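S1.2 Input.
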Amino acid sequence: MTAPGFDELLGAVRRAFVDGTGAPAATAVRPLDPTEARRVLGDHVAVAVTDRAVLADLVPGREVTGAIAVTGDGQDALVYTSGEVGGTPSAVAAAVEAATAHLAGTVRRLRGEAAVLDALHSTGRELTAQLDIDRIVQDATDAATRATGAEFGAFFYNLIDELGESYTLYTISGVPREAFERFPMPRNTEVFAPTFDGDGTVRSPDITRDPRFGKNAPHHGMPDGHLPVCSYLAVSVISPTTGEVLGGFFFGHSRPGRFTARHEYLAEGIAAYSAIALDNARLYERERNLASELSRSMLPVAPATPGLDVVTRYLPAATGSKVGGDWFDVIRLPSGSTAFVIGDVVGHGVTAATVMGQVRTAIRCYALLELPPSEVLRNVSALTGGLFGESFVTCFYAVHSPGDGTLTYANAGHLPAILVLPDGKPEEIGEALAQPLGVGSEFPQRSTGFPPGTDLVLYTDGLVESRTRDLTLGVDWLLAGIPGVLAAAAPGTAWDKLVEELTHGRHDDDIALIHVRHRGEDGA
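S1.3 Output.
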């Protein structure tokens, strides 16, 4: 494969060889490969390769940059370019030199274009990998402002009021945000309307002389104190899926003629990537909010329970792409006992939330029949077996019976509960008693005393496990933090603080939590 522009080099040499009448004398011009060059060179100082190691071997002591073989009238002629052209015809040397210079310029131009495309694609990859809308728009504004050489750039959301005008400044780059505080937002005037309507890019070498600018009251022209804007460039951001105009990028420079066709191309490219990223982020937010609201709507408000203080928490994932299927339940039973349930559907999104709702309903039904914990889990497992596909469900089910002061529990593959007896240290109970629901068929149950002053904590793995922290370490930290919660005057506030300490506000899975404290009052 020859380098770009090499055919021009061969053509220049062909045209340089002419006979006495000026007619072309060369009937064929071709490059030589290294093997052929060595075979035919003889005493000629000529090469047809660009490999510097081969050139040094063929023409020792000479700075040879390239060579060509020329065939005409049955004879071979070998010409070359170097610092010493020797007996090579000056016309050939000049032609080769001119063609080589043109080739070098072409290569530089192609490399420059490749660098621009690489930078644009790199920006696109970074933008489309984001799901946070604020960061997408700010990063895009910064990148486009740099790429266009603008003194400042801004992105305005396309929010339409009853007058059909766009108002909201979202991000700015290159100048402080305060620079726009005293001035109205862009209105659907002749200058701004094409951007907010998606009618095309607007580029002006001097916007103050543009007949579309400054016609509308109250600002006929640039307002006093406004950033000086002469060169102007505005690009729409249009959703590729819906065709909706999401907003527009606006760039300004105080000097005229600063924005070229290349700047326009770069701004449009970044705007296109921004539109894809914003579409992805909006879909992500929509699904995440749907699953989160579905999960919240299925979670109960813990009922008042005689003799017990109950604190519950449900926190949807703060990071990651989808919420999970964690849930809790507190069920008053006809006999006066209270059932406490914590569970986790393995998986994320609307499907996990839907499965969670089905399992929670099934557990409530069997619980109200006053079945023992082992029977509740066995029946639910049999009912739901095969319904979850690749997923499964873990669940810890415990019943407090105030009459005999006991806590009876069974565990279907869930994390153990934490029991704190009066004046005792936190201990784990119910570890690895059985397989998850839908998988296991036998769920052994255990009983322990639950006298006044005892605390029970049920939780899901989002509280103690993350991508950067081992589950065992997270459980150890939780056990170490529980005494502080028990000593607090406001357990709910103390739990909020402990959850923040354990997760640093960046839990990538849902968190569900129940804390039960036996007060020993109200006849319990």
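S1.4 Remarks. Residues 54 and 455 are 84 Å apart (CA to CA).
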